[in-house]
């Protein structure tokens, strides 16, 4: 009986984490460059039962479910046209580098703008880095080449620092940390933004399935609890 309670409770905990992940994916389905998360679930290792008297094997006992943590999918999102000259998207395995108080961080969100001082910045106001430091743009028409070279009014103003990441991990606000590596085969598309690589409909379906599974776990826990209470009351009346 206690085993059933434990299995049901562990399943509910797994579903709670899955629900949190799906809810976050849904909240960011409209965020440029967002990379969706997913949970990896598995069963606890089975425990082999043995006869206490002679040690003969009785059989395996499942101990419920657990997660292997949250994983991020870095699959390419669809590119959508915006025609804004400072909207940039990357095709391929690379990230834009940005300046933060904690050091260089990386993003796939290329919805950039000029700040009051002429620096190219993210939507949150963080300076975008070129190969020689923060990129500062004069007034004029901006063109960006596939290799990340930026020109203003026909004069070269710098080149975007692009990097592939090893051990990429999310830090919030659309930023990632990791070990930068040379970006090969990646190209920059001006006038485009990369859409989130999650599908809202798929995430909604997953949420409904998770909630149903969670409710089933709740009912199982309630049923076991009622049975245990009944057993305790009956034992109390014995004799």
Automatic annotation (TrEMBL):
Flagellar basal body rod protein N-terminal domain ranges (all copies): 5-35
Q: Does the keyword Isomerase apply?
A: no
What does the UniProt entry say about where the protein is found? Answer: Bacterial flagellum basal body
GO CC: one term? bacterial-type flagellum basal body, rod
Which GO terms of type biological process are on file? bacterial-type flagellum-dependent swarming motility
Q: Identify the residues that the record assigns to the Flagellar basal-body/hook protein C-terminal domain, covering every copy.
A: 189-233
Q: Which UniProt keywords apply?
A: Bacterial flagellum, Cell projection, Cilium, Flagellum
Its predominant location is other
Ranges for the Flagellar hook protein FlgE/F/G-like D1 domain?
89-152
Instruction: List the NCBIfam families.
Output: FlgEFG_subfam, flgF
UniProt similarity note:
Belongs to the flagella basal body rod proteins family.
Any idea what this protein is called? FlgF: flagellar basal-body rod protein FlgF
Organism taxonomic ancestry: Bacteria, Bacillati, Actinomycetota, Thermoleophilia, Gaiellales
């Amino acid at each position: 009986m206690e085993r059933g309670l434990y299995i049901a409770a562990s399943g509910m905990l797994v579903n709670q984490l899955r629900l949190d992940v799906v809810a976050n994916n849904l909240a960011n389905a409209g965020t440029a460059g967002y990379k969706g998360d997913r949970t990896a679930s598995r069963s606890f290792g089975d425990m082999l039962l043995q006869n206490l008297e002679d040690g003969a094997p009785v059989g395996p006992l499942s101990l419920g479910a657990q997660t292997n943590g949250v994983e991020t999918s870095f699959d390419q999102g669809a590119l959508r046209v915006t025609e804004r000259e400072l909207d940039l998207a990357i095709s391929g395995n690379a990230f834009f580098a940005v300046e933060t108080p904690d050091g260089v961080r990386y993003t796939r969100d290329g919805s950039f703008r000029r700040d009051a001082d002429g620096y190219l910045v993210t939507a949150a106001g963080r300076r975008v880095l070129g190969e020689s430091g923060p990129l500062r743009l004069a007034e004029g028409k901006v063109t960006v080449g596939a290799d990340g070279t930026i020109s203003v009014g026909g004069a070269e103003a710098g080149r975007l620092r692009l990097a592939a990441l090893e051990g990429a991990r999310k830090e919030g606000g659309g930023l990632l940390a990791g070990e930068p590596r040379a970006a090969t085969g990646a190209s920059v598309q001006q006038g485009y933004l990369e859409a989130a690589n999650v599908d809202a409909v798929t995430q909604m379906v997953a949420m409904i399935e998770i909630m149903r599974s969670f409710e089933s776990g709740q009912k199982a826990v309630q049923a076991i609890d009622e049975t245990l209470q009944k057993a305790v009351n009956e034992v109390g009346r014995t004799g």
